[in-house]
Amino acid sequence: MAGCLDNFQWPKCECIELGDKRNAIASISAGLLFFAGWWVIIDAAIQYPEQAKLHHAYHTCGVISTLAMFMINAVSNAQVRGDTYSTGCLGQTGARVWLFLGFLLGFGALIASCWVLFGGYVVSPSALHKQNQYAGVAVFLQNALIFFSAIVFKFGRTEDLWE
Q1: What one-character-per-residue DSSP string does 115-154 give?
Q2: How far is 35 from 58, CA to CA, in rounded Å?
Q3: Is-contact 58 116, C-beta < 8 A?
Q4: Cβ pair 135, 43 in contact under 8 A
Q5: Main-chain dihedrals φ then ψ at residue 50, nearest 5 degrees
Q6: Gap between the Cα atoms of 152 and 17, Å rounded
Q7: Whether this model's pTM surpasses 0.85
Q8: End-to-end CA distance of the chain
Q9: How many Å apart are CA 64 and CA 67, to the nearest integer?
Q10: Which of 158, 152, 150 is CA-nearest to residue 71?
Q11: DSSP 8-state class, residue 90
């Protein structure tokens, strides 16, 4: 069953061949997603400046998600595979642990933002939060967009063009 799709090939479409532009398109897309994430939470913070409507501690999720984005993209795929990274105190294992911790922080921030959205604004909202559900949606959207920007920036680019 595992090999049933081994011989299946998608038809080649020449209109979407990116070639040398793949890294530029992936970088611009990731930057736009990252910008949109922070834009959404800044908009929510301006609309709800009171602590009761949007608790200021909820911004921690976005900061951790941003840190995770930098951690995920700090190591290249070649370093994780062990092709180019042989020096340093931990070598390939250190690169893999760093990448794992980056993904752990990213998923943790995304899960925490889901908890903020559903726990604070959807499931059992107070009368004040029931009117201001956009704040919870903004916290979740910020973290989702930043996480997707990290994924696009990490896996959307190719390292073959760097050489």
Answers
A1: HIIIIIIISS--HHHHH-HHHHHHHHHHHHHHHHHHHHHH
A2: 18
A3: yes
A4: no
A5: -75, 145
A6: 17
A7: no
A8: 39
A9: 5
A10: 150
A11: S
With tokens 């038809």, the residue in question is: 11
Locate tokens 């370093």: which residue? 79
Position 43, amino acid: D
Read off the pLDDT band of 40 (50, 70, 90): very high
Per-residue DSSP letters for 11-55? PP-GGG--GGGHHHHHHHHHHHHHHHHHHHHHHHHHH--STTTS-
- The tokens for 149 are 């920007």
Give per-residue burial for 103-123: e unless 16+ CB within 10 Å, then b: bebbeebbebbbebbeebbee
Smallest CA-to-CA distance from 66 within 142, 141, 137 is with 142
pLDDT tens string 53-88? 888 898 999 999 999 999 999 988 878 887 775 666
Tokens 């910020």 -> residue: 142
Nearest 5°: the CA angle 160, 162, 163 is 80
> What is residue 105's three-state secondary structure?
helix
